[in-house]
Amino acid sequence: MSNLISSFLFAFLHFFLLIHSKPLAPALYVFGDSLFDSGNNNHLPTLAKANYPPYGQNFVQHFTGRFTNGRTLPDFIAELLELPYPPPYLSINESITLSGLNYASSACGILPETGSQLGKCLSLGQQIDFFQSTVESKLPSHFKSSKELSNYLAKSIFMLTMGSNDYIQSYFEPTLFSTSQDFDPQTYAQLLIDALSKHLERLYELGARKLIMLEIPPLGCIPHYTRRYELTGKCHEETNQIVSFFNSRLHPMLKNLTSTLRGGVFILAPINSLVYDLITNPSKYGFTDTSNPCCTTWANGTLSCIPFLEPCPNPNAHFFWDGYHNTETGNSIAASLCFNDPEFCSPISIRELLQI
């Protein structure tokens, strides 16, 4: 009950701030996978959905399609920006909000084929297609000139997380996809980075100037993998090593875009090292369990929550909500660090980005 009360209190405070203050940025636009999805997959024919309890147990609107117990990382960033939570794009009918939209879709990835075995999802390319439609067809009527629209987009914040499913749903599934036979880990990582770079350049061409990109988390530490392997520590380090080839290439690629695309600032959020530290040093962050999912999941804690079963009594003392995703506490820690700490996100914090 205390978790529910605190969720309503946060919602009230968020609403109070929205009506009594000016946002720090005009809008927040979100792209990504299930870490950021706020309900787009509810509108798609797919098995990858979270529109049932116990998902959203600690969120004021309950099971909206968020793959956690409460707020996602972009939700916390929206609060810090004093903006409303960006609604899922596929839930919008006619009029759109000028405070941002969420295009993220669970199970999808950087490559267009990723996630197809679970049904329909929006690949990163398709998400940017929808953003292009927003920019070209829906936003112009709200602005007096193209220059005013460009200024609005240039001052808006863009957040993106993508790549996890290109490993979980593809590279680490050799019975379904041949990617691990076709590419060694380094070559596959470069393939993803090259494709991601083109997508980010396209967002820039559509008007994005301030973008925060998350690393892929340490996938070898999530229950989906830790419960499959014999471990010497808390994580399956071979899985983490394969993912590290992507992350080690991500920072140089973002630095290159910042230096070559005039006026663009591409920020790296080093989520991988943060999550690894959270999991291996739980007491440092106030967690009591960083190994087991809080909800009862399918396949012995390795998959999504089983509908309507009661989760653990104190979700935010757990790092993991289900076999893949963390509770909102981890999202809150990451959001606060990237927003406020100039030593965390690189090269600058979101707060510093707002001054540009």
Automatic annotation (TrEMBL):
<keyword id="KW-0378">Hydrolase</keyword>
<dbReference type="InterPro" id="IPR001087">
    <property type="entry name" value="GDSL"/>
</dbReference>
<dbReference type="GO" id="GO:0005576">
    <property type="term" value="C:extracellular region"/>
</dbReference>
<dbReference type="GO" id="GO:0016042">
    <property type="term" value="P:lipid catabolic process"/>
</dbReference>
<keyword id="KW-0442">Lipid degradation</keyword>
<comment type="similarity">
    <text>Belongs to the 'GDSL' lipolytic enzyme family.</text>
</comment>
<dbReference type="Pfam" id="PF00657">
    <property type="entry name" value="Lipase_GDSL"/>
</dbReference>
<keyword id="KW-0443">Lipid metabolism</keyword>
<dbReference type="InterPro" id="IPR051238">
    <property type="entry name" value="GDSL_esterase/lipase"/>
</dbReference>
<keyword id="KW-0732">Signal</keyword>
<keyword id="KW-0964">Secreted</keyword>
<feature type="signal peptide">
    <location>
        <begin position="1"/>
        <end position="21"/>
    </location>
</feature>
<protein>
    <submittedName>
        <fullName>GDSL esterase/lipase 7</fullName>
    </submittedName>
</protein>
<dbReference type="GO" id="GO:0016788">
    <property type="term" value="F:hydrolase activity, acting on ester bonds"/>
</dbReference>
<dbReference type="InterPro" id="IPR035669">
    <property type="entry name" value="SGNH_plant_lipase-like"/>
</dbReference>
<dbReference type="InterPro" id="IPR036514">
    <property type="entry name" value="SGNH_hydro_sf"/>
</dbReference>
